[in-house]
Every structure is written in C-alpha cells, then in structure tokens.
Amino acid sequence: MKEISILEIPQHLDQEVTMKSWVFNFRSSGKIYFLQLRDGSGRIQAVVSKDNVSEEAWKVCEQLTMESSVEVMGKAQEDKRSPFGYEMQVKDIKLIQRAEEYPISKKEHGVDFLMDKRHLWVRSERQVAIMTVRDEIIWQMREFFRQEGFVLTDAPILTPTSCEGTTTLFETDYFGEKAYLSQSGQLYLEAMAMALGKVY
C-alpha cells in the first residue's frame, strides 16, 4: 500500500493508501470517529466506522488524544461536506505515539501563555498560515532578485563592532571576546559588490 502525504490525496482518490499524521481534533458519535488529521502538507478528515475496522483498530481510536501521531490506511474521496474538501474512509489505524495532555485548547489564551508554549503554538492553523505566507513572500523576493541577476550573500551574524548607532547594540560573549549581533549587512555587501556586482 503506497504511503502518501495529505497534499497528494487528489492524485490518489479511491485508491488504498497509507498516511502518517497527527490528530489535531476528533469527535465520536457512538460507532463512528471523525478524526481531523494534519501532516504538515495539509489537513483532512478521516472517518472510522466500528463496523469497518478491527477491534484492535477501534481501541486505538478510543485512546486517542489531541496531537497523538497515527498511521491510517484507507481510501480518500472528494467530499464537499468536509471542511477540507476530501474525506478518508479508514480501514485500519495504528497508534504511533499517544500524546500527553495538550495544553493549548480551543479557548482563548493570553499572549504570554502562548509564547511560553511557542513550540506547540506553531502547530495551530493560524500560525501555519502565517509561516506559509512568509515562506511564499521570501521565495518570490529571492526569485525576483535571481531573475534580475543578483547574487545572494550572507553577512556574518556576529560582528566585532557596531554598524549603526550603539543605542540598539546587543552585546554577547564570544569565547571571552565582546561581540555584537549585526545590525546591518551593509559593510559586507559593499565588499561583496566589488567582487560579484549585483548582490543582496
């Protein structure tokens, strides 16, 4: 059975496939579990019917928690009723890891709490959308400069002196020597421009 990502679902409709993903939400209506899954490439709803899976697979559903990781096997179909456009009819499900109690619930949380749990907060739909848009903007900018003949150069992160004013200088210890987070790549770009011409 071929293993695919959620993003590849449209190319494998009505085919038996395997997906590895995280459970970011779920609900039960007696003999049916509705699992909302994500794998980084997308999201999909998976339907587990007690009549269509083994007793062992059903027990897996009964012990699921938010952010548990699972492997699901079944067929995906286009479904306009689904919030994700597609739905997977599960034939088997295996638990990879059962997550401990997830601290970020659907209720409102303060910024301090969310920043303290930043490594978990980035899994939320809003944060994923922000990072995806950011990725697209950066790649479009780089593509523009590349088409215009510019060369990407990386200036050092740490410098021995300030590039701009000292009021915003961030000092750190570098093996016993004073070093500062770079405020600008200007000095290095000026040197690189003499070697490569158009740089950014």
Automatic annotation (TrEMBL):
Keyword Glycoprotein: no
Pfam assignment, any one: tRNA-synt_2
UniProt record, GO biological process: asparaginyl-tRNA aminoacylation
Residue ranges constituting the Aminoacyl-tRNA synthetase class II (D/K/N) domain according to the UniProt record: 112-200
UniProt keyword annotations, A-Z: Aminoacyl-tRNA synthetase, ATP-binding, Ligase, Nucleotide-binding, Protein biosynthesis
Residue ranges of every copy of the OB domain listed in the record: 17-96
InterPro entries named in the record: Aa-tRNA-synt_II (IPR004364), aa-tRNA-synth_II/BPL/LPL (IPR045864), NA-bd_OB-fold (IPR012340), NA-bd_OB_tRNA (IPR004365)
Domain of life, per lineage: Bacteria
Molecular function via GO: aminoacyl-tRNA ligase activity; ATP binding; nucleic acid binding
Protein name: Asparagine--tRNA ligase
